[in-house]
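step 3/5: co-fold with zinc ion
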Amino acid sequence: MAFSPTVVPSFISPEIKKICLNIADNDRVQFVDIEPRAKYTPNKCAYNAKDEAETVGGEVVFGRAIFLWDKVMFDLIGHAVVEKDRRYYCVTPSKMGDQKVLFVPDPSIRFDFDNPNSRLPSCEVAISKKPEVQKLLNVREDIRNIKIKYPVSSNGVLLSPADAQALSVLERQQTDLLSRVIYALHPLKAKCACGSAKQFKKCCRPHMQRVYG
Ligand SMILES: [Zn+2]
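step 4/5: write tokens
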């Protein structure tokens, strides 16, 4: 399942504030407008923000974009935005077509623009205490730890044979665990995680029930 069930949270809950205090030692979490530039690509937010900041005379601010998979986990993805006239904005197009990103500045983030392997840190925080959720987070961390060795744009082409092998095993585990977690926790009446726009209970759940039920 390629679809990611995480979304931009609709409001800043006390839980989000608490996580931000743990992550970034500040509570300056805020919704930031996305003003995408056609010349920029997703996944390159650091370079996009640097280019924009140099163009408009602003500053690059590093932090975390916060995404929520309701009842399951938070995804805290390293992100870069632009600060200009004391206002933050994001110039990186959202793959999901989002118009806002929930952002918290993280002064601990360092990014080496001269190193093509530089990646912004990411982490996930479980909401659910179900063991499948913790296993899923562990697998995803293992995947990140392999990918972090390679440039962002490599898309697997340059992976060593050992890493490619490990990655394919982990990705299969991730797919299975994702399905299990969706089956166990996705709200029945919410839109299905496959992206069909149908209710979960009328779309993929009946099929999953044969496998996981
Ligand atoms: Zn479905």
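step 5/5: annotate
The first strand starts at residue 30 and ends at 34.
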